[in-house]
Amino acid sequence: MTDDKDVLRDVWFGRIPTCFTLYQDEITEREAEPYYLLLPRISYLTLVTDKVKKHFQKVMRQEEVSEIWFEYEGTPLKWHYPIGLLFDLHASNTALPWSITVHFKNFPEKDLLHCHSKDVIEAHFMACIKEADALKHKSQVINEMQKKDHKQLWMGLQNDKFEQFWAINRKLMEYPPEDNGFRYIPFRIYQATTERPFIQKLFRPIASGGQLHTLGDLLKDVCPSAVTPEEMWLSNLRIDLRWRAEDSSDDSWN
Amino acid sequence: MLEGTSGDHPVQPQPRQGHLEQMTQGRVQIPSSMAGEEDFFLEEKRFKQHCEEFVKHSQQIGDGWEWRTNKDLGDGYLSKTHFQVRNRHIAQDLREKTSDNIEETLLAHVEESLDDSQVAGVCTTEEVIRYEYHVLYSSSYQVPVLYFRACFLDGRPLTLEEIWGSVHACYQDRLQEGPWDTITQQEHPILGQPFFVLHPCRTNEFISTVLTGPWKHNRHKNYIILWLSTVGPVVGLSVPLSYAKVAPEQNSSTDSAERALN
Question: Which InterPro entries does this one have (chain B) (predicted)?
């Protein structure tokens, strides 16, 4: 795991330059300037946009402001997806900065989860961690941790503290030496083209012959239509944070 | 493959069909003589069978459940819609109705209560709530999970706070201990829309109490019925007593296959 520290840091510190613009139909007292921000790929929109909210609320009247929500080219952005996933899914082929529209009215109840407080984000984040550990360790590692360890994971994410986060997360990424890996690999495959939000199935890291499964094996098994033989490449399957969400279109593998 | 050992390597070569199928088919329950701690996981094939049985009985008694299949991946879920009235002044028999007769019954009762001087309040349409319940399978926890959404007749969805508030009084203590671990809003894994979810983490805990010791005979009963009759009432869903009559599976082919693998 120590050799991979560079990779872990690169993943953690990945950023997407973003331009936030207020939706034109929002009622303002004066012109709203766009707001620029570098968004962390591994975090959540509602966790890192307090400044964006404050910036636009300055030009609006209190009664015109209800729950904030974000949209890209007409599509409401699911705040509970990691920012990097949202970008890869919706805007990876467009020029930077990523242009997001900010709304304070007409919350799309049928599309988005509510996010009235940071508690909601924390609950969601911890639920993802727990589910991943159910797959990796039958929940043994996460359940043996104390509440303060869970808090440390969350605070590490919230405050962008790599060392603080990984001090706890490394335990979730270990397995006993006699095992060859996790019980099952936690993964989800997101495709922009389907109604179904993601594909998630049980998948073992080791094949019956004892060899390690590769990412190509996983894709072949789970969504064969997404990959052609020429495009398959071999690599060890990596689980970094919670879910690795890749694969944004049916006909090309990035 | 034996449940409970930490290595969990397959003990025999797997045929080429795709190990995903084998993984879901090969899960067996450990006989109680072998394991100290017992796991009562429900593997996916059995989940589907029990849902089938469940729907069959529902159709017999007009309980409104149906099975919906997702065309992309072939998995599916149970679904039921019903209406509930929050107003206490309405008679008990109005509490659960199918969508067919709710409006007629409502109007009849509104008229009645207008005439009855002893009734303090009148049931207005804002108090009628449309509940939609889905039972999905969680491959991560290997248990069924209850998803639901609720809205008033004018389309306004209930908030999380309103949902928490509507949890039956006898479950409120448990809810207060950890509301964020119990009922939260989540994305429906097949439909991609916001639903409320009753968290599955504790399911294995309480299901095991229903399946051990004096209740061992329950292991061949319908898991969905056992589970839903326990968790459903927490969120306003009741399972009529006649489900208890559903005959337990007797040496079905799945059971013998599982024993052969064991």
Answer: Atg3/Atg10
